[in-house]
Amino acid sequence: MASDPIQFGGEELFAAPPERVFAVLTDLDVMAATVPDLVSSERPDPATLKCVVKPRFSFLRATLRLTISLADIVPPRSATMRIAGQGIGVSLEVSSALTIEPAESGSRLRWTARVDQMGGLMASVPSGLITGAADKIIRQGWQSVRERLGEGTAT
């Protein structure tokens, strides 16, 4: 089932300076503490987080082993992240990029994410279902970042 990659992106504004936003977004220990449905995690090296999650999606009940890797890190401006997931009958690869710049009242973050590969059972799930689940996780993720920065909800 070949189709165009599922893509996401957006812009977020934070009151914190770029250095602080970058530090939170690239801290894999912070990320481990905020991964939804986390079962376990480990840090095999400074740029990699391996974790096991058991997502509660109607279309996916399998346990997933995720490897999250940071690359192309240019503090406090940009970084890329790659996520590879494997489970029984399921695989996926996601790539993401972020750019942070000073803004009038703090920082402006521009980000993109793309599902590069889905295999097994994931390939047969309608993209609308995946997009809806991803949107929910993304919103939760930005709220977690705001909490870590001591900010309220997005305006």
Layout: helices, strands, pairs:
Elements: E1 6-14, H1 18-25, H2 28-34, E2 38-45, E3 48-53, E4 64-74, E5 78-87, E6 90-103, E7 106-120, H3 127-148
Antiparallel strand pairs: 1-7, 2-3, 3-4, 4-5, 5-6, 6-7
Please give a structural write-up.
This protein is α+β, with helices and mostly antiparallel strands. It has helices spanning 18-25, 28-34, 127-148, and strands spanning 6-14, 38-45, 48-53, 64-74, 78-87, 90-103, 106-120. It contains 3 helices and 7 strands. The protein has a 7-stranded antiparallel sheet. The longest helix is centred in the last third of the chain and has 22 residues, at 127-148.
Taken in chain order, the helices and strands follow as EHHEEEEEEH
Number of helices: 3
- Give the beta-strand count: 7
Biggest sheet, strands in spatial order?
1-7-6-5-4-3-2
Distance between the termini: 39 Å
For the sheet with most strands, the description reads: 7 strands, antiparallel
Oligomer: single chain
Kindly estimate the percentage of residues that lie in beta strands according to DSSP.
Answer: over 45%
Q: Can you give the mean pLDDT?
A: 88
Radius of gyration: 16 Å
Low-confidence stretches: none
What structural class do you assign from the helix and strand content?
A: alpha+beta
Helix content: 10-25%
